[in-house]
Design brief:
The chain is built from six helices and seven strands. By secondary structure, the protein is of the alpha/beta class. It has one domain: 3-Layer(aba) Sandwich (Rossmann fold), CATH 3.40.50. Strands 3-2-1-4-5-7-6 form a seven-stranded mixed sheet, with helices on both faces. Strand 4, helix 5 and strand 5 form a beta-alpha-beta unit. It starts with a helix and ends with a strand. The structure holds S-adenosylmethionine. The site of S-adenosylmethionine has 23 residues, from helix 3 and strand 2.
Length: about 200
């Protein structure tokens, strides 16, 4: 077993010990600590796009501590192994489905407006980097559409993108929609991974 594998395993194990189904929670935690994403929510609403197995949703619900409301969507169901009833609370709504689907969009927009749209959405990878990058780009564009549609003025956006392809176009669009927009690669991203995150701070 090489060091890199041990490190990956370390983060997944740590996540499970700390009550999260996936190591991806540490990416949100790092961005939250750096940019105050959930602090800015202050009892408002949050939308989690591409939420399964549910680490980001659980992190947000724990940080919100009963105040505010979280809506989440994914093609796959959430894991119920770690939520200790949090996914059954009145301040949580999950819909299983496709973000491109009009009825899903309607259900999510109806539960807004949101103060934070966060998305770790990613296509299932094919191994063909240009196909994967194009699919990720389309998903990220769709997430920005959601932000345009149902994020409050002053609200923030975090969205995952696969690097390569025309990601600069997304950043350009975010710069028009937000007071500031920037890329950020959390340290807990696997070193070989070509994913990064774009943050839009303060919707105009
Ligand atoms: C990296 S995972 C998210 C992990 C999650 N943030 C967590 O912490 O548990 C990416 C998710 O995006 C979802 N996804 C991909 N395409 C989607 C689509 N068109 N609509 C909804 N969800 C989608 C996948 O099903 C997958 O669960």
């Amino acid at each position: 077993m090489n060091n890199q594998y041990e490190k990956m395993d370390h983060w997944s194990l740590k996540a499970q010990k700390e009550g999260y189904p996936a190591r991806s929670v540490y990416k949100l935690k790092e961005m939250d600590e750096k940019f105050g994403l959930l602090r800015n929510v202050r009892g408002g609403r949050v939308l989690d796009i591409g939420a399964a197995p549910g680490s980001w949703s659980l992190y947000a619900l724990r940080k919100m501590a009963g105040a505010g409301f979280l809506a989440a969507v994914d093609l796959s169901p959430l894991s119920r192994a770690f939520d200790r009833g949090l996914f059954e609370g009145d301040n949580f709504f999950f819909v299983q489905g496709d973000v491109y689907d009009a009825s899903i969009r309607e259900a999510l927009v109806a539960r807004g407006p949101y103060r934070l749209v966060m998305s770790d959405v990613a296509p299932s990878t094919t191994g063909n980097r240009s196909v994967d990058t194009l699919r990720s780009l389309a998903l990220a564009e769709e997430v920005v559409n959601y932000a345009e549609l149902c994020l409050e003025a002053g609200g923030n956006l975090v969205v995952k993108v696969f690097q390569g392809g025309d990601t600069q176009e997304i950043l350009k669009r975010m710069r028009l929609l937000f007071t500031s927009a920037r890329g950020f690669k959390p340290e807990t991203c696997r070193p070989e991974s070509f994913e990064t995150y774009y943050l839009g701070i303060g919707k105009r």
